[in-house]
From TrEMBL:
This is 3-hydroxybutyrate dehydrogenase. Gene3D superfamilies: NAD(P)-binding Rossmann-like Domain. NCBIfam families: PHB_DH, PRK12429.1. GO terms for biological process: monocarboxylic acid metabolic process. GO terms for molecular function: 3-hydroxybutyrate dehydrogenase activity. Residues 5-173 form the Ketoreductase domain. Pfam families: adh_short (PF00106). Belongs to the short-chain dehydrogenases/reductases (SDR) family.
Length: 256
């Protein structure tokens, strides 16, 4: 379905980003990888699928890095057809204790980066009259949780940005939508499981169950593979007129 297309997935060396990159690659898209950590492992998994893979180590909190990433992607593959804004970080503290530098970092990486990648990807998408922008927001783009002020503000902002990009391109072949997962058991969430285990003297399994019980009626984690299938639908011709939605995959979290 996506042969000859190029997908840039930010923060794709682990977790959800890697899951989405693999789903897109299985449909034939060449991938621009980004992120830190096990870069070689992520690259090897994608190369094994049989697509071309490029890597750029932009820090998505820095505009100059993002501009370089977008230039690099165009130089490697001509243009970015599918832009997945996925890189994200979390910091948990009540507002009065929230370190201002962490606020700035969460807003920069989780929200502002998507403005920069989109503004730089849109001209080529519009001239090709085809493009998909998928923003990895969160159920926290739809509802709040105590302790997550910067994350909730960034994700609500990302849902708003999604709607505006969708509207500005509504008469073109470029769509923009957001995906809003509940809990997905990635390194980002394992840190929160670990914190809960220490705080309450729980085992890893007990802490996972407690995390789910607090928020997710299905008592199940969403998987990167399930999110990959949703991203593929958004890239498919059937989704040509799906524009500006924030689609939650959250086990009923936001339905409460
Ligand atoms: P993760 O920690 O497993 O992966 C994050 C990725 O982003 C990694 O590849 C990391 O290297 C990269 N990254 C972090 N900071 C970066 C930076 N400054 N520049 C470039 N790359 C950077 O996290 P995840 O759980 O896979 O989260 C991916 C996205 O999904 C995030 O936007 C997160 O907010 C969102 N999300 C996650 C969950 C969940 O339960 N895990 C739920 C809802 C939304």
């Amino acid at each position: 379905m996506l042969q000859g297309k190029t997908a840039l997935v930010t923060g794709s060396t682990s977790g959800i980003g890697l899951g989405l990159a693999k789903a897109l690659a299985r449909q034939g898209a060449n991938i621009v990888l980004n992120g830190f950590g096990d870069i070689d492992g992520a690259r090897a998994e994608l190369l094994a699928i049989g697509v071309q893979v490029a890597y750029h180590g932009a820090d998505m909190g820095r505009m100059a890095d993002i501009e370089d990433l977008m230039k690099y992607s165009a130089a490697q593959f001509g243009r970015v057809d599918i832009l997945v804004n996925n890189a994200g970080i979390q910091h948990v503290d009540d507002v009065q204790d929230f370190p201002p530098a962490r606020w700035d970092a969460v807003i920069a990486i989780n929200l502002t980066s998507a403005f920069h990648t989109a503004r730089l990807a849109l001209p080529a998408m519009r001239s090709a009259n085809w493009g998909r922008i998928i923003n990895l927001a969160s159920v926290h783009g739809l509802v709040g949780s105590a302790g997550k002020s910067a994350y909730v503000a960034a994700k609500h902002g990302l849902v708003g940005l999604t709607k505006v990009i969708a509207l500005e391109n509504a008469t073109t072949g470029v769509t923009c939508n957001a995906i809003c997962p509940g809990w997905v058991l990635t390194p980002l969430v394992q840190q929160q499981v670990d914190a809960k285990a220490v705080q309450h003297g729980l085992s890893n399994e007990q802490a996972k169950q407690q995390l789910l019980r607090e928020k997710e009626p299905s008592m199940q984690f969403t998987t990167p593979e399930e999110l990959g299938e949703l991203a593929l639908f958004l890239c498919s011709p059937a989704a040509n007129n799906v524009r500006g939605v924030a689609w939650n995959m959250d086990g009923g979290w936001a339905a409460q």
